[in-house]
Amino acid sequence: MANRPRLARWSMSKHQWLALIGGISLFIWGLSGMAHIAMVLFGPQQAEFMPPMRAVDMSAAQPVETVLAKAGIAKATAVKVVVGKDANLLQVTQTPMAARRYFELGTGAELAGYDPRQAKFIARHYLKDTRPVAEIVHQTAFDADYPWVNRLLPVWRVRFAGGDRLTAYVHTETGSLAAVNNVTKTRMQTVFRWLHSWEWVPPQLEWLRVVVITLMVGSLAALAVTGILLLVAIRRGKRLPGSKGWHRAMGYVLALPLLMFSISGIIHLVQSAFERPTSQMRMSPPVNVADARYPIERDWAEVAAGLEVASLSLVEAPDGRPLYRLGLAQSRDAMPKGEHDHSAHQGHTMPMGDTAIRNARFDGISPTGPALYVDAATGRPWPQGDRALAKALGRGFSGAPDSAITSMEVVTRFGPDYDFRNKRLPVWRIDYGAPVNATLFVDTTTGVLADRTENWQKPERYIFSFIHKWNFLFPIGRVGLNVVVGVFVILLLGFMAGIGLVLDRRRRRTRT
Length: 512
What we know:
The chain is of the alpha+beta class. Helix content is 39%, strand content 18%. It is built from eleven helices and 17 strands. It has a six-stranded antiparallel beta sheet, covered by helices on one side. Strands 9-17-16-15-14 form a five-stranded antiparallel beta sheet, covered by helices on one side. The chain has a four-stranded antiparallel beta sheet with strand order 5-6-7-8. Helix 1 (4-42) runs antiparallel to helix 4 (183-196), helix 5 runs antiparallel to helix 6 (242-274) and helix 6 packs across helix 11 (477-511). The chain is elongated, with a radius of gyration of 28 Å.
């Protein structure tokens, strides 16, 4: 190849010129990236991953309408039965940011100020920590310790007694552990924010932060490219002795990972600069619970005959009527084979005791079980099911007609499109074409928009997930994935940054 010597000289000159800034950049972002990996591997971990579960039994409950009327609640954002420490409770969310209210099912009595107690119960459930609670605070805004990427608000910040300052962030509406911190993780988060994302830069200088980081991380990409060109242009029959030999040999292994980290990091940085840092979660407008006159508890034995009801909530039908949504636990040996055809039920009602209700396979079936709907005003079955309700929620949150929908499906696993920080599963994924050009994820259990992703954001999300965070290694598990990534980062720091800077220093000394 006639141009190989010229290519080698050009690549070598650029590679050497970039060595100092590239080596320093690799240490800064490599070490701070290791802080994130250390948080995952050695930070506080939850001991329990499944939420508290207890079958719903309304047979001895007070009428929901009566309970809410006595409490002066005519409208509510969410009404649902939740698992409490000793018994199931009726939970009411009147406004999205307010503390939830709770009522005993059997007596209808309100448990005043119970939301923090529920938060403590949930925190102990997930962390299995029996220490006293030193502090509990209702948090309605994101901050440095609980940033916006955690998505859920409001949360209760529950700090346990002890020098480790173990802190759980609990979202009582979903019964979720939104985040968990301790002293060690807080310190590592600080290192990550200061060195990896440079959050110390004032907002008015955001443009400067993007420019400087792009140039510094871009030097890593340029180092990787010129290094690859050197490997192609200069062929050696045997390895060079000493540090030069090790630097070159590891270049074959580490050039591609360095290119992956740097390019994907720049893309993430630039796109993040155009996105407003905020959670996309939204709750539906309040439901008129005063119209929920049907005493479902009176007919519970008939309604729930042969069923294991895992959840009960009040939601709003597309025409505005209130509905009871019965989420059913599904037995492992009774996985449904397909969807139920609801067209046969249009225009007439099914009696509450009809086996067609108990055996119906409604749209939106998932491993957590199907859902059945009962008109909360009349007690009649509402046969349209989850798909129809999801479409109605999509219309409300997007402002677009159903004709704009290009596809719908139930999501039962977290992934790059809908990740674990959202906490809610299952949800409906609704893909919209023009004029929305976005994907909405809606939870029919309480009528919540869990997340929204614009079409223009999707390529970067896949790039960041698979190229920067290496989630293509998901089959080996979270711990295995972080160990592998950590090993590659350590090799990059040692053989590329460390040896590379030593070689650059020697070269500079030789020149002088």
